[in-house]
Amino acid sequence: KQEVTQIPAALSVPEGENLVLNCSFTDSAIYNLQWFRQDPGKGLTSLLLIQSSQREQTSGRLNASLDKSSGRSTLYIAASQPGDSATYLCAVNDYKLSFGAGTTVTVRA
Amino acid sequence: EAQVTQNPRYLITVTGKKLTVTCSQNMNHEYMSWYRQDPGLGLRQIYYSMNVEVTDKGDVPEGYKVSRKEKRNFPLILESPSPNQTSLYFCASSFGRVNEKLFFGSGTQLSVL
After folding, report:
1. Partner-chain residue, chosen from A34, A42, A100, that has the shortest CB–CB distance to B101
2. Residues of chain A contacting residue B98, judged by C-beta atoms under 8 Å apart
3. What confidence tens digit (pLDDT) does each residue in B56-79 have?
């Protein structure tokens, strides 16, 4: 059974600092990995989708890398802003989507 | 605007009183699914549907029913709700099950007393 872990569970940084969020998974036979953002009381928004054949994916200030062989993905958010405060979840798709518990990020102004 | 719409956003009910949470998407997605989100347990899949009239169980299907009579709608039915079904529920959809971004509704906070 696929296990997805996100460490740390919470993170607080000053505005302008780069954010590094980690996601690890136990079974490397995956189709893809998605990073989501969840704001309090709201649904999840897909940020980046990395296919298993890709090493990274970029969108604006966001960059996600994937190392399938070691079962790891990292989400980088450059020059963080208070508006980046949210919970970030990763989800691994091996024909079934398995979610991590998320990392709650607070960016202090 | 492309979206997944869930109703209601909040629902308080009593044990045993049947309820339905509606879900509709306007993106012509074939794949739809329901999740529940609980503190410490994360998101768990309840049911999913690959297309009209095709549904299957997820990880935690007990106590729930679904139907997919139309492509755009995927209601979640609780025939006899119990307090352990108190949770935050999300509907989601995508073009396919595997290599597509998943779009989520805003969620339904359900409390069963």
Report:
1. A34
2. 31-32, 93, 95
3. 999 999 999 999 999 999 999 999
